[in-house]
Amino acid sequence: MNGKTFEMDDIDRKLISALRHDARASLSDLALGLGVSRTTVRGRIERLRQRGEIVGFSVVLRGDTARDPVRGLMMLGIEGRGADRIIRQLNGLSAVRATHTTNGRWDVIVEVGTPTLEELDQVLGQIRRFDGIAHSETSLLLNTRKSGS
């Protein structure tokens, strides 16, 4: 637009996360959840659409959420104190189902779900390129014997 580089801030990331959860949420509900005005939410959505960050909205059917054909757990070692930033980035990815902080060898465990192995590979590569990821290990989930859902 004016030649400036566009960078999303925390409000933009939280807004996108809220829209991923419920793209039909009202401006009032989004504003309340984000702690900003309806005007701010409307302006942010419009700006994100104009900049090409939001390219559309879709419908998610119950069957789509029941189970991803390809699922995995990605364990991440994070260098320095970038865990909060990396978790925000992870939570902004549509393939990320959950993020968990942990103790021991790994700092964060990420649940990832995709339709194909190729898409899982792309997501894993994208995550590995995040600034601050020191090392990672991924395990594919082959079968679920018991689930909380």
Automatic annotation (TrEMBL):
Pfam short name (any one): HTH_AsnC-type
GO cellular component, one term: cytosol
Keyword annotations from UniProtKB, A to Z: DNA-binding, Transcription, Transcription regulation
HTH asnC-type domain residues: 8-74
Translocase in keyword set: no
Biological processes per GO annotation: response to amino acid
InterPro entries per the UniProt record, alphabetical: AsnC-type_HTH_dom, Dimeric_a/b-barrel, Tscrpt_reg_AsnC-like, Tscrpt_reg_AsnC/Lrp_C, Tscrpt_reg_HTH_AsnC-type_CS, WH-like_DNA-bd_sf, WH_DNA-bd_sf
Signal sequence, renumbered to the chain: none
PROSITE patterns linked to this entry: HTH_ASNC_1, HTH_ASNC_2
Any GO molecular function: sequence-specific DNA binding
Protein name, per record: Transcriptional regulator, AsnC family
